[in-house]
Design brief:
The structure holds two protein chains of two kinds.
Chain A: H1 5-18, H2 20-56, E1 62-67, H3 90-96, E2 102-117, E3 120-129, H4 132-136, E4 141-144, H5 149-154, E5 158-161, H6 163-170, E6 179-182, E7 185-193, E8 208-212, H7 213-221, E9 232-237, H8 243-257, E10 268-272, H9 273-316, H10 318-326, H11 331-367, H12 378-403, H13 406-411
Helix pairs in contact in A: 1-11, 2-9, 2-11, 9-11, 9-12, 11-12
Chain B: E1 2-13, E2 16-28, E3 33-37, H1 44-51, E4 59-64, E5 67-68, H2 74-84, E6 85-88, H3 100-110, H4 115-128, H5 144-156, E7 162-166, H6 174-189, E8 193-198, H7 201-206, E9 209-214, E10 217-222
Parallel strand pairs in B: 3-8, 3-9, 6-7, 7-8
Antiparallel strand pairs in B: 1-2, 1-4, 4-5, 9-10
Helix pairs in contact in B: 3-4, 3-5, 4-5, 5-6
The chains are: A alpha+beta, B alpha/beta.
Domain MacB-like periplasmic core (chain A): 23-252
Organism (chain A): Caulobacter ginsengisoli
Main location (chain A): membrane
Chain lengths: 413, 231
């Protein structure tokens, strides 16, 4: 005996279709709002993923020990002036290797290098390392072999080169056994690293040359690093769970070895990549939340636009409302009809905004080289949210329509 | 069928209370065709609104087939209008966006009737009022007389017990008025109870019963009258 709900949906959509231009403009606010929210969250999510992969690219379960004072928890990833006062030695590295749950310790020195080979020129980074470097940094050899322990200690002039260096210097020909000059010092290429691609920070991780620690320190890096000093010690823990303990043990061990008195500052810095990732993630999350909140404001403005037009519609259609009541519509039928109209307007707007937002995010990723990632939950969330906007802002106009006195309404011109 | 007793409708205007209906007692039997006449402001429209369940009386009682309509809540009143009453207005009150068919279907939508049955009944109603050829036209594409026929078809859609017409010929020319009036008599002859509110004495003259209003009261209730028309 009462109206079928589907017929009320039909009335609502019929009214929307009757004024296509007005309906489109009314929905536009929600379209823009939802598109903005979706795009902002995709940018934030993309940045989060990139940070994870960027830091993960350095090696998993990794601690990076560098000389210089600690710069507070989590922060200070960018080392300032490290190397000006070198406090770490190969002996420190050896000692760190005795700690529990440590699977690899890789001391290293590094410097810039001008390479020449067969007439070709290339400017890159060179790192003096030991065989464990591969394990610590999660690298693999594509062809040839890694520098061995003896070569590392004795300062033999052999090198393992990255893919970018290999193609830049040798093109398609096999670089194994070829000679390259690092500055003026000749090295023999004994291996090529498997490609790791672009790092999250936009750095080409294949643009690198690895040489034996001793040879690079004495012949390439030169005066800045003396004796058995090293610039960085990579410490790889067995698993993520033991990372924190290893960090603590390493700090204690180094303080002891460096004879640092209780209460005095460390003269080195042990960084835990996991905690850095976490800190960066949380700051990106905050930033993303802020952006999304700003975008959500435009969604609210869109809701106000819907309310405005719905109020106009109720005034315009007063006689229609009166007539509907006269032929048997209950007040709730009128209420639902107008509420549905507002909800359909905003949900359709939300759906269009969702498509535009996803498209915009993909376009940004493609054209702007800006990392974006679309969250699966953004689909139900934005549709649900636009529905809520329609309900909230459609409520008052619908209530006005339902409260009309049918006699007055029918008399309205 | 209709029993009203001591019916009052009061409006408060500022500090004054105006009685649109000042104690009306009236019965209308099933199958009657009654004209309610009187000058404007005499209370005939107020009576019509209460009879149709669009308004509630301030005092007095209104029973329809024994049902107490005067005390019904909003939803019950809406259902009462849906099941029992068919309205015909002076200004037709067709929805301009809808076709003749859709306008006729409207009351059936609120009665919860399935689309297929709605369509069948709407077609039958439009054929009955002589608009079988113009079912997909919109109100603006129809003449005044045709629009009023659509409105009558709409009023008949839910097979009401009472057809209430408020100045149904007020916006029509003489010939069309006669046609529309003839239609009311035809429907009445088929057993439908019809109450027409009018100040057109010619319209009233055709009714079997004339109820005259003045100042919110019945001043004359003429059951005999000159009988013309088809009944």
């Amino acid at each position: 005996m009462s109206v079928r709900r589907i017929d009320l949906v039909g009335f609502a959509t019929g009214a929307i279709i009757a004024h296509p231009m007005r309906s489109a403009l009314t929905s536009l606010g929600v379209v823009i709002g939802v598109a903005a929210v979706v795009m902002m969250t995709s940018i934030g999510l993309g940045a989060q993923k990139q940070v994870t992969s960027a830091i993960g690219g350095l090696g998993s379960n990794l601690l990076i020990v560098s000389p210089g004072a600690s710069r507070g928890p989590g922060g200070g990833f960018v080392s300032q002036g490290a190397g000006t006062n070198l406090t770490l030695t190969e002996e420190d590295a050896k000692a760190l290797g005795t700690l529990e749950s440590v699977v690899a310790v890789a001391p290293s020195v590094r410097g810039g290098a001008q390479l020449t080979a067969e007439g070709a020129n290339w400017n890159t980074r060179i790192e003096g390392v030991t065989p464990d470097y591969l394990v610590a940094r999660d690298l693999t050899i594509a062809s040839g072999r890694m520098i061995d322990e003896a070569e590392a200690r004795q300062g033999r002039k052999v090198a393992v080169i990255g893919q970018t260096v290999a193609t830049s210097l040798f093109g398609d020909s096999d670089p194994l056994g070829k000679r390259i000059r690092v500055g003026t010092v000749p090295f023999e290429v004994i291996g090529v690293l498997a490609s790791k691609g672009q790092s999250g920070f936009g750095q080409d991780q294949d643009d690198i040359v690895l040489g034996p620690l001793e040879a690079v320190r004495s012949r390439v890096v030169g005066k800045r690093v003396k004796g058995d000093n090293v610039q960085t010690i990579y410490v790889k823990a067995a698993d993520a769970d033991s990372l924190d303990r290893v960090q603590e043990d390493a700090t204690n061990l180094l303080r002891e070895r460096h004879r640092i008195r209780q209460g005095a500052d460390d003269d080195f810095n042990v960084q835990n990549l996991a905690s850095i990732t976490e800190a960066l993630q949380s700051s990106i999350k905050t930033f993303t939340g802020l952006l999304a909140a700003v975008a959500a404001v435009s969604l609210l403005v869109g809701g106000v636009g819907i309310m405005n037009i719905m109020l106009v519609a109720v005034t315009e259609r007063t006689r229609e409302i009166g007539l509907r009541m006269a032929v048997g519509a209950r007040r709730t039928d009128v209420l639902f009809q107008f509420a549905l109209e507002a909800v359909v307007l905003s949900v359709v707007g939300g759906a269009i905004g969702l498509v535009l937002g996803i498209g915009g995010a993909m376009l940004m990723a493609k054209l702007g080289n800006w990392p974006t990632a679309i969250a699966g939950w953004s689909v139900p969330l934005s549709l649900g949210f636009s529905m809520l906007v329609g309900l909230v802002f459609g409520a008052y106009p619908s209530w006005r329509a339902a409260r009309l006195d049918p006699i007055e309404a029918l008399r309205r011109e | 069928m209709i029993e009203i007793r001591d019916l009052e409708k009061l409006y408060i205007m500022g500090e004054e209370t105006v009685a649109a209906l000042a104690g009306v007692t009236l019965t209308v039997e099933r199958g009657e065709l009654a004209a309610v006449i009187g000058p404007s402001g005499s209370g005939k429209s107020s009576l019509m609104n209460i009879l149709g369940g669009l308004d509630r009386p301030s005092n007095g009682s209104y029973h329809f087939d024994g049902e107490d309509v005067g005390d019904m809540a909003d939803d019950a009143l809406a259902d009462f209008r849906s099941r029992r009453i068919g309205f015909v207005f002076q200004s037709f009150q067709l929805l301009p966006r809808l076709t003749a068919l859709q306008n006729v279907e409207l009351p059936m939508v609120y009665a919860g009737i399935e689309p297929r049955e709605r369509r069948e009944r709407a077609v039958a109603m439009l054929q009955k009022v002589g608009l079988g050829e113009r079912m997909t036209h919109r109100p603006t594409q129809l003449s005044g007389g045709q629009q009023q026929r659509v409105a009558i078809a709409r009023a008949l859609a839910n097979a009401p017990d009472l057809l209430l017409a408020d100045e149904p010929t007020g916006a029509l020319d003489t010939n069309t008025s006669k046609e529309v009036l003839a239609l009311f008599h035809e429907l009445n002859a088929e057993g439908l109870t019809v109450v027409i509110v009018t100040h057109d004495l010619e319209v009233a003259a055709e009714a079997r019963r004339r109820i005259s209003f003045r100042d919110g009261k019945v001043v004359e209730d003429d059951h005999g009258g000159s009988r013309r028309g088809k009944s």
